Amino acid sequence: MAKNTLSFVCQNCGAAYNRWQGKCESCGEWNTLAEEDTSGSVPVSIRSKRKGRTFALESLAGKSPDAPRLSSGMTELDRVTGGGFVRGSVLLVGGDPGIGKSTLLTQATSMMARAGHRIVYISGEEAIAQVRLRAERLGLSDAPVQLAAETSVEDIVSTLSEGAVPRLIVIDSIQTMWTDTVESAPGTVTQVRASAQALIRFAKKTGAAIILVGHVTKDGQIAGPRVVEHMVDAVMSFEGEGSQQFRILRAVKNRFGPTDEIGVFEMTGLGLREVTNPSELFLSERDLGTPGTAVFAGIEGTRPVLVELQALVAPTSLGTPRRAVVGWDQSRLSMVLAVLEAHCGVKLSGHDVYLNVAGGLRIHEPAADMAAAAALVSSLVNAQLPTDAVYFGEISLSGVIRPVAQTPARLKEAVKLGFKRAVLPESARGGDAGGDAGLSLNAVNSLTTLVAEIAAKGSRRGDQSVPAEKNATPARFRRGEG
């Protein structure tokens, strides 16, 4: 008999220790070590000593056929996966509780089942009656999806091995699964890793695509060992704010497609509705004529997206002013504020700064620097920005506006939504960037020029007169003059 081996495994990152300690040295979390028996963590068939077999080695030269894909019937979901589900692939989908993961998968599996594919939905958290109630609420109760409420991985694999191989299997969720090969409670790091390994082995052997639903931590990371994210073929995050109706599916990892695409959905009473034009949705509730708002022309994958950036700069009575940002990088905001003060003379040390990306979208590209700076200066000097203008450009530490990629696509989307002007880097003006798009281009070379143009149109709150200076930093923004 194998000797029992006890170890203390971190429930946050999966690191193992031979004794208990309060803090995990790998992830830095406190009180996350739990005692687990790892003597049976490896199946007997793998532990048995056998002679290895030889296998053939291939060269880099040669042609490989494209992996066949199975369309989900939802354009936005197929966009994120790279065109559909690949046979034998395993996807891990995470998201906050109640964000709509089960609703999205119920709609996708119902459409695929109606197309004639064998689809199996295994629920480890809900009873079959609860899944049926959701399908009835979504108007999908007539879809021939095969349901089951089971948590034993061995029973699931044995059942799915009989008859025709399913084209798609949904496991909701992986934290509720358990296997006989390990002696740990369901949800522990050892059980999650072993259960995922067994399901991945079944997918590669049979060619069935599997979607694993994963819980997330309070920081938004997928709970359980990080090794599971390395084992699967794709990791997708379903994001959104509870107060917003928008839902965004983003690929964090994808071996069969791009990782910078997003799918946009709108939560309605009848489930998730695909949004084919996210820009129109994000700009539908714009407050025209308000200082501190600028429209950013961004790129998410291959899709141009226009979104509104909102800024509020207010005097503070605190010793340390607040810097709050939602939907953008905090470090990026600090950099823009430093450049504004160092090169443009904009004194913000006595003001609280708040920046928000409207609609719940999170922006990752540095091309939003110019739009953020324009919104900040507009709020500070109480100047209204043109409502028919879009902004994009990266700000360097020297105050120079750097060019960004895919300028024609950004301008084309702006024209489609009725915008007439675009403020963009000087180097992006050449060529056919916007000449045939019908846009009036305002090319700026430095952030100082942009600040001067905005400040000349506004006044600080309470000021009666404002001196206007063209193509120069206004006197009230110069260093040493407050």
Structure description:
- InterPro entries: AAA+_ATPase (IPR003593), DNA_repair_RadA (IPR004504), P-loop_NTPase (IPR027417), RecA_ATP-bd (IPR020588), Ribosomal_Su5_D2-typ_SF (IPR020568), Ribsml_uS5_D2-typ_fold_subgr (IPR014721), Rubredoxin_2 (IPR041166).
- Belongs to the RecA family. RadA subfamily.
- Pfam families: AAA_25, ChlI, Zn_ribbon_LapB.
- One of its GO terms (molecular function) is ATP-dependent DNA damage sensor activity.
- Keywords: ATP-binding, DNA damage, DNA repair, DNA-binding, Hydrolase, Metal-binding, Nucleotide-binding, Stress response, Zinc, Zinc-finger.
- Helix 10 packs parallel to helix 12.
- A 9-stranded mixed sheet has the order 8-7-9-10-6-11-12-13-14.
- It is α/β, with parallel strands linked by helices.
- The longest helix is centred in the middle third of the chain and has 18 residues.
- It contains 12 helices and 23 strands.
Residue runs with pLDDT of under 50 for 5 or more positions = 462-482
Structural class: alpha/beta
Helical fraction: 10-25%
Question: What characterizes the major β-sheet?
Answer: 9 strands, mixed
Overall geometry comes to globular
Task: Output the radius of gyration.
Answer: 27 Å
Mean pLDDT comes to 85
Figure out the total of helices. 12
N-C termini distance: 79 Å
Spatial ordering of strands, largest sheet: 8-7-9-10-6-11-12-13-14
What proportion of the residues form beta strands (DSSP E)? 15-25%
Total strand count, please? Answer: 23
Strand and helix map with partners:
Blueprint: E1 6-10, E2 16-17, E3 33-37, H1 44-47, E4 69-70, H2 75-81, E5 85-86, E6 90-95, H3 101-114, E7 119-123, H4 128-137, E8 146-149, H5 153-160, E9 168-172, H6 189-206, E10 209-214, H7 227-231, E11 234-239, E12 246-254, E13 262-268, E14 271-274, H8 278-282, E15 293-300, E16 303-315, E17 323-326, H9 330-343, E18 351-357, H10 369-381, E19 389-391, E20 394-395, E21 401-402, H11 407-416, E22 421-425, E23 440-444, H12 447-455
Parallel strand pairs: 6-10, 6-11, 7-8, 7-9, 9-10, 15-19, 17-18, 19-22, 22-23
Antiparallel strand pairs: 1-2, 1-3, 4-5, 11-12, 12-13, 13-14, 15-16, 16-18, 20-21
Helix pairs in contact: 10-12
